[in-house]
Amino acid sequence: MAEGRSAPQAHGGPGWQALQSLCLIARLHQVAGDPAALAHQLGLSPSEPVGVSDLLRAAQGLGLKARKVSCGVERLALTPLPALALVRERTAEGEGSGVASHGVR
């Protein structure tokens, strides 16, 4: 590994999964994307959460079209693919969230 570069395992804070999912979708469009590079370009530390506006900026920085759409689970099947979905779950401890890649095989 080149000097000055950290291994992907060194990152794993909130939102890292979202940046990895975005890079996966970018690859489907033959666009190279690196989660660590995107986080750096956005000025985010590995432990800092990635917001929706950060994901939109990262996608646009990769040359992808991106927009925020709010809908219920029942409309997710009608969403153009591939798509990222921010899933909010209610748990015993409160509300949590996660990222799901939809239409990516």
Q: What are the main properties of this structure?
A:
2 strands, alpha+beta, disordered N terminus, Peptidase C39 family protein, two-stranded antiparallel sheet, Cathepsin B, Chain A, 105 residues, 3 helices
Radius of gyration: 14 Å
- Biggest sheet statistics: 2 strands, antiparallel
What structural class do helix, strand and pairing data support?
alpha+beta
Q: Which superfamily, in CATH terms, is the homologous superfamily? A: Cysteine proteinases
End-to-end Cα distance: 29 Å
What's the domain count? 1
By DSSP, the count of extended strands is 2
Q: Runs with pLDDT <50, length 5+?
A: 1-10
User: Which H/E pattern describes the elements?
Assistant: HHHEE
What's the average pLDDT?
A: 79
Helix percentage range = 25-40%
What's the CATH architecture?
Alpha-Beta Complex
Any idea of the CATH class? Alpha Beta
Could you tell me the strand content as a percent range?
Answer: 15-25%
The DSSP helix count reads 3
| Order of strands, widest sheet | 1-2
The geometry reads as globular
Return the CATH topology. Cathepsin B, Chain A
General description of the model:
The structure is a single chain. With 105 residues, the chain is of the alpha+beta class. The chain has a single domain (12-102), classed as Cathepsin B, Chain A (Alpha-Beta Complex). Helix content is 30%, strand content 17%. The protein has three helices and two strands, in the order H-H-H-E-E. It has helices at 16-28, 35-42, 52-61, and strands at residues 83-91, 94-102. Strands 1-2 form a two-stranded antiparallel ribbon. The N and C termini lie far apart (29 Å).
